[in-house]
Here is the input.
Amino acid sequence: MEYIWKDRKRIIFGLPWSFTRYGLTQDKLIIDTGFLNRCEDEIRLYRIMDVTLKRSFWERLFGLGTIHCCTGDKTSPEIDLKHIKNSRDVKNMLSDMIEKERSERRIGVREWMDGDEDEEHGEQE
Here is the structure.
């Protein structure tokens, strides 16, 4: 698997002394956590619906940021890439890759909206 971007969650003074690793491939976002017991969470890019950059005072002080993603994934509806370097550049790259993946798969935002509205309209008629 070839990574386009990799980083670690950074803690004290922006140093990567953490067991949380982030990776971005052409079509997946991977979050690997743990030291002895490891957990790898994988989210397909086309499932990510919204990307937000959050930067607290301390994060800005050390050149970090947190990227919050809302997804259409059942097991991980919301994920955070916490305390990463170059967060604005990473967010922009992630957003562009998400749009590219959606257009290649011909998936729009309507694909992720709850189907209840259509069912309700169908029942009322």
About this structure: The chain has one domain: 5-107. The mean pLDDT is 87. Strands lie at 5-8, 20-24, 28-33, 39-44, 48-54, 64-71, 78-85. The helical segments are 57-61, 87-105, 116-124.
